[in-house]
Amino acid sequence: MGAGMEEGLIIRADYTGDMDDELGKIRQKKLIEMQKRIKAQSEGKVLPLDQGNFTALLHAHPALVVDFWAEWCGPCRMVGPVVEELAREYAGRVTFAKCNTDDNPILSRQFTISAIPTLLFFLQGNLVDRVTGAYPKEALKKRVETAFVPAGKRS
Question: Which residues participate in catalysis according to the annotation?
Answer without folding.
Answer: 73, 76
